[in-house]
Amino acid sequence: MARVKICPKCGAENSPGSAFCINENCGWDLSGVKSVDKEAPKPAPDPDPGEKAPEDNAVPPGKDWAKICPKCGRANRVVAKQCVACHENLKFLIEKTLVDKSLLQGSSGAPAPEPAAPKPVNKVIASLNAPDGRCILKIDTLHPITVIGRENVMADYLASRDYTSRLHAEIHVMGDRLAFVDKGKNGTYINNVKMSPGSTEVLKDGDKVSMGDRWPDDWTKSQAGCFIVAYETGV
Predict the structure, then answer these.
(1) 43-76 burial by CB neighbour count: b if 16+ within 10 A, else e?
(2) pLDDT tier, 53 (very low <50, low <70, confident <90, very high otherwise)
(3) Which residues sit opposite 190 in a β-bridge?
(4) Measuring CA to CA, how many Å separate 119 from each of 115, 220, 231?
(5) Whole-model pTM?
(6) Of 49, 125, 142, 196, which has the most beta carbons under 10 Å away?
(7) Residues sharing a CB contact under 8 Å with residue 28, sequence separation 6 or more, in sequence order
C-alpha cells in the first residue's frame, strides 16, 4: 500500500520524502507532516455474467429512434429528409426521440404517397328500350356523353335503319335526366314532334324517340331508329 503526505493547506497528495507541497499554487512546508497510507481505489465489481452491460444508445424492445416533425408532430425514421405526413423539411433536424415502433410503420423516409382518388360510383340513369320492351342501351354516370348512330353506339340495333344517320345524336347525362342533342341529317322526332336541327331536348320518362322519321305503326318495317326512354326512378 503506498504512503503519501497530505498537504494540510490544499489537500494535495505528495510523496513521503517531499519537503514542500508540489502544488505550484501552494508550496506549503511539509517537514513536520507525517506520511500516511493511501487507500487503493476499489475495483469495480464484475458484471453479472447473466446480464449484458448497457450500451450507448441502447434501444429497448418495441422502441426505435425517430425524428419528430416540428410542424405536425408525426414520428419519422431518423433517415427521413422530409415528413411523410406534411412534407416538412427534416434534413436539418438532428434531435432524435425514442418512440414505439408502431408509430413508424409506413415511415420509409420517402414522401408519403398521395391518397388514391376514390373510385367513382356508377349510377344507371335510364334505359333506352325498343318498342317491344327489350333494353337496347343503359345510360349511366360513367358515360356522361353517349354518341349514337349506325356507326356508333347502338350500331347493331340501327344497322337496318337507313333513315338514321351514322352519327345521329348525342345523349348527355344532366344530373338525373338525359338531354338529347340532334346531330343527324334526317332529323329526329320526339313523340312525333320534330326537333329543330341541331337543337337539344331534355327527355322525359316514356318519351318515344324516332331518328329519321315519325314514329311508325309497324316499327319492325320502319327505316327510322326507334326507342322509348325509361328512367330508373320512373319520373
Answers:
(1) eeeeeeeeeeeeeeeeeeeeebebbbbeeeebbb
(2) very low
(3) 193, 209
(4) 12, 41, 24
(5) 0.51
(6) 125
(7) 7, 8, 9, 10, 20, 21
